[in-house]
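note to self — DONT lose this again. spent like an hour looking for the file last time. sequence + predicted structure for the chain T wanted, 93 res
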Amino acid sequence: MDDDDVDETIKRLTQQEKAIFIETDALQIEMGNIVAKETGSGAIVYDVAKSTQHKDRYSALGMALKYISELEDQRKRKCIQNVNAAIGFVVHF
């Protein structure tokens, strides 16, 4: 392939874009490390298969998603409550 054949629209990744790919790869690896384990009481917990593996990014992502979900649920409940409020005008002729 000649240098003349190279598409001019191809650009190099910035450091920030490279960091996003690296962090995403690390997250995918950590997600692959997660296994379901049954506790003595019969509850299911999600942990890593080996003590040398990590799940920090996955745990942080899960907590963030849970927090966002709770915020969305609060907003939905608030919107529903406002819909049931009686708003109107009284006109006498």
